[in-house]
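Researcher: Next entry in the queue.
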Amino acid sequence: MNNTDYLKSLVHELCRLPQKECEWVEFKHNHANADEIGQYISALSNSALLSGKDKAYIVWGIDDKAHSIIGTDFSLDRARVGNEELENWLLQRLNPKINFKFESIEIDDKNVVILQINAASKHPSSFTNEKYVRIGSYKKKLKDFPEKERELWRLLDQVPFENQLSLERISKDEVLELLDYSYYFHLVKMPIPDGHQVILEALTSEDIIQRDDSGLYNITNLGAILFAKDLTHFPNLKRKAVRVIQYKGKNKLETVREQQGTKGYALGFNGLIDYIMTLMPAEENLSSPIRKETTMFPKLAVRELVVNALIHQDFFEAGSGVMIELFANRLEISNPGVPLVSVERFLDTPPKSRNEKLTSLLRRLGICEERGSGIDKVIFEIEINQLPAPVFEIPEKSTRVILFSHRKLKHLTKQERVWACYFHASLKYIEREYMTNSSLRERFGIEVKNGAMATRIINDALESGLIRVYDESVGAKARRYIPGWAGGENI
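Model: Structure for this entry, 491 residues:
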């Protein structure tokens, strides 16, 4: 659909609105006072956000009662304030700099002018330092309606990445071509409905798409990042595709292969995990009583860490996405954005997500778990395979987790042993158990006769403050230990 057809469709859709003007549309005949237009831009921009709309409109050439097309004498080409063009004059007096656009078309040989105004973002929109809002069909000063102002600020603080639009004003056929809707129905375990309209309604109910004011459709960031067949068709998201890089050695000097994903996260997740696992060499773990030959890292641990990186990333960090790097001795998974909880509390603290809607949908689709962050599963898998404890780092504006391949206890540093001891105590605590000398020996594969080695690790962890004795009155041989952050109540 070309721009002229879109604008005609938009005008016809707006004219079908109830005859009492709504709070995000204003119809006018010829009246075009510059100050009043500025005030309306502020009012309609704020009210669009309050009404859950991405845009607001002023339309000249429409009867404000009957909503019939009557034409207008208003012409943007002739609209000036003194010697200054109207658009530039308005832009200088609006704060923040609201994105708005005038368009002129002819409908049934009648001139119609449309002013499209983006909804407020970051701050309430103001004109000449005064904020306005629509109350019914009336333009009012926002300060006179404190409950509206409080609600506006609440919404401005909560506008999430997922609700923003990735592609706008596209046809239903384009929606169905760009998104793999069949995989959505596969994940929710429902048959694909008969008829495109029912499919579109289902996608709309999940906020994967939205119906545009013109009768066309918008694809949200949520819909594109999860179900895009090809993220390169979404300019604002193509840098958010997952990158997987395999290096030859323990550094980045020589790259074996690099793969840039193109599918949405939900669509490509299982394939991504399978691809990562195929890059890992199988290795023999003689110390593990569970299995003798395994991949370098357990699949469940890799899966949980990758999904964590996807859902907890900061999408507003431009130019970066989730990156997975496989070295000869380790796996590094990084995502943009610093964590919202301290790394020491990853295991026990309920996760705080920047992307609640994304996380919620992925849970319902069965891609991430319903509770917790999955780190407890990671630690369990690391322990049962007797691998070094994972390391969590916070480089500038990002989070990185590192898994290390199997090494014998004698090759671990003091800090690595202490860190593993801390995670073991934390895992025991959230399982409503205590760490003991015996449980730590089992974690590291230490023989009973070498129990003093476990005692040294425990003493180092006690000295660091990462763990503490649960009950000081108990003799040394029967002591139980809990993480340093844990309360003293009975488990």
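Model: The chain is about 35% helix and 20% strand.
Researcher: Noted, moving on.
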